[in-house]
Amino acid sequence: MKKCILSVVGKDKVGITAGVCGVLANAGVNILDINQTILQEYFTMVVLVDIDTSSLGFGQIAERLENYGKESGMEIHIQREEIFDAMHRI
Questions:
Q1: Shortest CA distance to 77 belongs to which of 87, 66, 88?
Q2: How far is Cα 50 from Cα 58, in angstroms, rounded to an integer?
Q3: pLDDT of residue 13
Q4: On the CB side of 1, how many CA atoms lie within 13 Å of its CA?
Q5: Is 34 helix (H, G, I), strand (E, B) or coil?
Q6: Of 6, 8, 17, 88, which residue is 20 to 30 A from 30 by alpha carbon distance?
Q7: What CATH architecture does domain 3-87 belong to?
């Protein structure tokens, strides 16, 4: 299993979760866990995904998410789990 952590931040509006999940579904990415909240007027979401189910490579998935984020006025970042873990070790 190739796990990745996806973060989404932007002004709250209708359809953010649906839009991001649509990009993931179209890429064949499986969502393992999802957490979202509203901080004042900002929407934040963290998603744990498995990209093994996708026929696309990590770079292609990242590009699709980044493009969707730009089109939607959001910051969307994806990191491989091992990079995320290494960055957050004390």
A1: 66
A2: 11
A3: 95
A4: 11
A5: strand
A6: 88
A7: 2-Layer Sandwich (3.30)
Q: Which of 44, 42, 39, 56 is nearest to 4 (CA)?
A: 56
| CA distance to 27, 39, 68, per residue, from 32 (Å) | 15, 23, 21
Residue 87 pLDDT = 64
pTM of the model: 0.88
Torsions phi, psi for 46 (to 5 deg): -125, 130
Alpha carbons 31 and 68: distance in angstroms, whole number: 17
> Can you give the C-alpha Rg of the chain in angstroms?
13
One-letter identity of residue 30: N
Model pLDDT, residue 1: 84
Mean pLDDT (10-residue bins), the chain, 90 residues: 95 96 97 96 97 96 97 95 63
